[in-house]
Sequence to fold (146 residues):
Amino acid sequence: MSVWNVNYATDLIASMAQLNFQTDSNSGAALKNAAQVSSDYAKILSEKISEVEEAMKKTQDNANKQQQNFSSGSNSAKSIETVKRFMPDGSIMITTYEDGEISSQVKKRPNLVPMPDYSAPPDASGQVATKIEQHFSAADLLMMLM
Fold:
């Protein structure tokens, strides 16, 4: 709502209030009392209107300053996001995004360790079959938490 609409609405309210006070009372004393009440009301109303206009001017100035700062590009704040993923091959991929673009990407390969596989049949020499499994060390898990 613009300032002019606020002024028009408040003037309309003030004039209707004065009109109601004048038509309701027929005696001279009542008219003087109504005039006193309406003048007090008009003072309070004008004070409130001036406060609203000042507040509106301040918000417009702040909005203009923010718009100028934004358009000049002085806000150089970057959004940095780090995403950590477990990949299907067991590796850990750490990707860092700055303003939606990839700035760095690190892929930590898994630590593969030979483990005995008791479910598979033994070799021809009678040795237990082995399989390679990934083994996360405490450092790998700690890296994921950071």
